[in-house]
Amino acid sequence: MKKNKGYYRGIEKDMYLFFVGYDEMGAPSFSKFARRIGLTLAELESFRKKKLFNKAYAECSEIRRDYLKDTALTKRHDPSFVKYLLDTEELSGDTGDVKFTLEVV
Known about the structure:
Blueprint: H1 11-20, H2 30-36, H3 41-46, H4 51-73, H5 79-92
Helix pairs in contact: 1-4, 4-5
């Protein structure tokens, strides 16, 4: 993907293709996509004021949710942790990355 320093024509398609074709470790995220194209997460999220970008952002969020569900069902990711992530997104109304603290006793 091209490295850019701001909004560009076709970013919605690039983001969609990133989420649909994700096959790396972990799960697809907006933060990973932003870094891939040379932006910060804050810069990427600032584009949500654009109607087309916001629609693509919402679709990518749903792709991410499906990805997490599928990996939980196949035990590629811990199902209880995926449930926690998805529940946290629903409670906060946020569809981006989730920050959490884990304390091991």
